[in-house]
Amino acid sequence: MDWNFAGTIVAPIVQAAAATAGVIGLVFVWIQIRETRNQLSLARDQLKLSVDHLALTVDQMKQQTMWNQVHAQHTLLSVLPSADAERELWKVVGKYRAAPSWQFPHDACARLYDEIDDWMTIKGFINCFERLCAAISANSLDDGYAYSVHGARVIDTFNTFEHYINYIRRKRSNATIYLELEKVATRWAQKAKSEQAAIESEQAKLHQARGMQKTVG
Question: If you write DSSP's letter for every residue of 106-138 in order, what string do you get?
Fold first, then answer.
């Protein structure tokens, strides 16, 4: 066989075969790249769905937490004495308070302590506010919300029975009795005082402005 002739025929065939194999290889590479891109796209979609689901779950948990907080605050606030209980309380207080002062008199504390029924009425009333203030101090109840709803009642309760509270502390040698009530009431009283000062300042400005308008008119 003429090797030159064979080489002339075979070489192009080999080259064509090699080229074809290269093309086929490139096709396979392209297919793999496309499949990889499809898989990446699918994985990205799945990741997006997972993130969306996680965001939805977090949002639901936040809403549930907010609802639980509102429910807990409503429950805690609902344990305060009713209007009827408060009416009975002031009937008891009226038996010991000869002066027109709203504060329970210091000289009546010992007498009250010996009257079990009256003592239990007042004790039960103050205990409700002590539990409320303990929940506030423990951050179980929103301070601002509780202040807006029952700030005046807490302040008035401590101020009214301050002499009695101090008497009980000395009687039992325990300075922590009704301490949470005292802390919250004192802080809220200062807050109310600051708010009142701000209101009075704003009202003075309004009165001054109206006076100037009348003068100009």
Answer: GGGHHHHHH-HHHHHHHHHHHHHHHHHHHHHHT
pLDDT digits 0-9 by tens, 40-76: 777 777 777 777 777 766 766 766 655 555 566 666 6
- Backbone phi, psi, residue 88, to 5°: -65, -35
Q: Print burial letters for 96-121: b (CB count within 10 Å at least 16), e (below 16).
A: bbeeeeeebbeebbeebbeeeebbeb
Q: Flag whether the pTM goes above 0.90.
A: no
Beta-carbon count within 10 A of 3 CB: 8
The one-letter code for the residue type at 92 is V
What DSSP assignment string belongs to 45-90? HHHHHHHHHHHHHHHHHHHHHHHHHHHHHHHHHTTSPPHHHHHHHH
Name the amino acid, one letter, at 82: S
C-alpha to C-alpha distance for 138 and 14, rounded to whole angstroms: 87
Query: Residue 183 corresponds to which tokens in the numbers above?
Result: 């802390």
Q: By the 8 A CB rule, do 97 and 108 touch?
A: yes
Tell me the pLDDT tens digit for each residue of 78-130. 668 888 888 999 889 988 876 667 789 988 999 998 999 999 999 999 999 99
Report how far residue 117's alpha carbon sits from residue 186's, in angstroms, rounded to the nearest whole number. Answer: 29
Q: d(Cα 124, Cα 11) in Å, to the nearest integer?
A: 110
